[in-house]
Amino acid sequence: MTINALKQNIQRIKEIIREAYVFENQLKVIKNLELNNKAVINTQEKKLLSEAVNSLIMQLKILNNSLPDLIENIKFFKRLAEGEGKLKINEPERKNLIQIKYKPNKKEEKIAVTINDKDKKKFLKNLSKSNLSINQLKTKFAVERPVLGFGKPNFYAKISNHFFKEFSNKLLSKWNLVSLNKDLRKMNSPFMVGTYISMIFFTITIFFISSLFLFALLLFYNVSLTFPFLTPVEGSFLIRFAKIFWIIPVIPLIAGIIMYFYPKSEGKTFGSKINQELPFVAIHMSAIATSGIEPVNIFKIIIKSKEYKYTRAEFKKLLNLVNFQGYNLVTALKKSAKSSPSAKLKELFDGLATTITSGGDMHEFLDKHAEGLLFDYKLDREKYTKTSETFMDIYISIIIAAPMILLMLFVIMGSTGMYFFGLSTPIISFLIILAIVFLNIIFLMFLKLKQPVF
């Protein structure tokens, strides 16, 4: 029991140090802004942070005081003593140690710590103070942890790790795939780079097995009887083997290449959508900054507004670095800039970090930056309009005018008894209609992909 008690105390000490570090950093930011007169300071938040830090430090001291007694009670043998003709096992003295069980908050499970009996009242008093302060901070100021859509384990990733986890780890130890890891972070992927590599190899294996079946089908069976659209490979066995052997390596290789470069492509798409939202985000941030609010609270307000779907995800990552990993805002901005999928958002984060460090005017910087982003946005809209006009002309020429001319030509050819490639006029008309439908779908898909979000 004593070893378990020691482990529980050490685990709680680590948690207290982490929480105290986070709140102390937030308190330092407030004090620096107060000294430089750069923002209106929220005295309630400052008071709550101070109370939380002091209470956590006192809990830390009490838990540290209990460690020597816990260590002294740990024995690797049992001492025996004689008494009334019998050998009795001497139990180690507890030295007035007691165990306290409590919940840090309503959502978490109970934890147990062992402290000296004389420190019980002091510990419970500071525990109550810290819990009250932390709950008030979370209610009024803290940002909720992002609710992600991949809360449950991914079945495909689980199977991939089962077969290829060790191989992927060995590969990562030899080759540091930094670029792939950056691409995964830019697209906000739920997978670690090792898991994603396992998924790539598992996908290659599936396509390899599928290509073997397809190879055997084309090699040994007359596939034209079952699949009329496939032409059977003619010639001797060796000739057929040589003609279709490329299927086995090429199909898995293509699948692996697509999966490897998918994160980069998805990250670029994510970045382009952020670029479309960013001018309006910057204008919103500039308007908030006029009130002299603390810089970190600007991001909190933007997150509460659900208008900016893609930019909110990046701002959540930024605030998680501050609230849950203990970074100060400047460091968090620089780290977020490195992993940002948008070059324009990277410029905004770097500019904000420089402005805060140099003591510049936040509102003035955001106002100027918003003007530049809005100008770029107007240019992109004009470019999209011009592109749409060009494709409208192409659409009218190919989809409307060309089929009408071809139909008139085929009608004239049919009336004179001439046939185009041996096809009758009804078949040609049907093929033209199919081509028109197919081209319309392509144009609609293109316009949908190129259409701006805002």
Give an overview in words:
This protein has helices spanning 2-36, 43-72, 120-140, 155-174, 178-186, 193-220, 223-226, 237-244, 247-289, 295-304, 309-323, 329-338, 343-358, 362-415, 425-450; strands at residues 80-83, 86-89, 97-102, 111-116. α9 packs across α14 (362-415), α12 packs antiparallel against α13 (343-358) and α14 runs antiparallel to α15. By secondary structure, the chain is mainly alpha-helical. The strands form two sheets. It has a two-stranded antiparallel ribbon. Strands 3-4 form a two-stranded antiparallel ribbon. The longest helix is centred in the last third of the chain and has 54 residues, at 362-415. Residues 84-94, 141-151 and 223-229 have low confidence and may be disordered. A hairpin with an 8-residue loop joins β3 (97-102) and β4. The chain has four domains: 2-140, no CATH class; 155-245, no CATH class; 270-375, Up-down Bundle (Receptor-associated Protein), CATH 1.20.81; 377-450.
Topology readout:
Blueprint: H1 2-36, H2 43-72, E1 80-83, E2 86-89, E3 97-102, E4 111-116, H3 120-140, H4 155-174, H5 178-186, H6 193-220, H7 223-226, H8 237-244, H9 247-289, H10 295-304, H11 309-323, H12 329-338, H13 343-358, H14 362-415, H15 425-450
Antiparallel strand pairs: 1-2, 3-4
Helix pairs in contact: 1-2, 2-3, 4-6, 5-9, 6-9, 9-10, 9-14, 10-11, 11-12, 12-13, 13-14, 14-15
